[in-house]
UniProtKB/TrEMBL annotation:
Residues 455-482 are annotated as: Disordered. It comes from Paractinoplanes globisporus. It comes from the Bacteria. This is Aldehyde dehydrogenase (NADP(+)). Keywords: Oxidoreductase. Residues 7-265 form the Aldehyde dehydrogenase domain.
Amino acid sequence: MTDKILAAAASSGFGAAPPRDRARALVAMADALAAAADELVPLAESETGLAEGRLRGEIKRTTVQLRLFADVAAAGEFLDVRIDDADPDFVLGPRPDLRRYRVPLGPVLNFAASNFPFAFSVAGGDTASALAAGCPVVVKAHPGHPRLSERTAAVARAAIASTGLPADALGLIHGQAEGVAALRDDRIAAATFTGSQAGGRALARIAAERPRPIPFYGELGSLNPVVVTPGALAERAEQIAAGFAASVTASAGQLCTKPGLLFTPGTFAGRAAGAFAAAGTHRLLHSGIADGYARRHAEVLGTPGVEVVVAGELTGLTASPTLVETDLDTLARHRGTLLEEAFGPLSIVVRYTPGEPLAEHLADLIEGSLAAGLHIGAGEDTPWLRDVITTLNDRAGRLLFDGWPTGVAVTPAMQHGGPWPATTNPTITSVGTAAIDRFLRPVTYQDCPATLLPAPLRDDNPWQVPQRRSPAGESAHWGDRA
């Protein structure tokens, strides 16, 4: 079955469709998912344990992503068309006619995530951005919500077909063995993944060791450190404590942007203890996450020098929040234990002494994260603060001020990626319009007869996409604007 699905995707001809046709297919998918919400949400509730309100919000986010990439496709800017007119007087010798644009890589394999059964699953952002680029998608369903995956795929495929494009532009497979086999298949041109560091590394190795290696875009986990300055703490300690607790306990801490480390001037965790304890219990997504969380919970709470503020509990798949506090020396001494992500409702408050070079400690301790944050006082601007900002800038894809990293806006300027080990490629994002860049490669046509040029490169521009042109004679004036 996997081979049949891969063959159908590879032969679908989806990449040859004009961008506006792809845009219409993405809008049709958005409309169909919204219309099917009353059927899909109860199915998602039963398989994931996530609340109805959270799931309905996630369907809305998923439809917004699809519409956003529909606009990206329709605009055509992602093709990055560049035309250099033939120039016999070019300063380095005669220049040929050169026309460059970006083409789809080919079929993309998307390993769906468990914690976002809509937004990072069958019809989520990776699928939307790949389809917008013109790449057919084969989704490896997550075992945590297989029935939802099947139904979502059926809804999406019917929507694509309703616009006249091939339904086989979107395929679905199940099972770890099937996913690995697909990743090794020469018809797959790129892969995306959201999940554990161990799983992501194993898959990235397979992608790199193929006879024809392919790009593997993995999101592998993140600590997302947040720093509170003395000025911020003096101004609004209770507000920060409440926001911290809400960010850590949302969705039982099963968010890749959960703040796993909070650096505060002096003892702070007690201020947030009440909010952590009041958050109650929540079902974890599946037994794999529960087992991993149980291990990390025991390791963190059993580390010498770690003070348990709210112990939390795990019973079967049900967890209550845990909050601990320690200092910089303990964090450094036990970095092998404390600096591994705990995927669940657990976070570590780390005390520092005001005035000490926190930036140096962060540079030594913190690896790449999807996000990092700072809570600062009104008008605060010191060399100490700027050093901290510089260090966090080097280690995160998104830097927040006076906010919390949970909650990722679906918008053009969003960056959802970061240095290793947050992702396998620090230059990409899986949220926002730049996500489409992952699935395109540039090709230049040199001195091609006009009748043989692809539509985006033709002078009559039948697709009406933006074209950036360098006219003959321009090179004689390069540097004049300096």
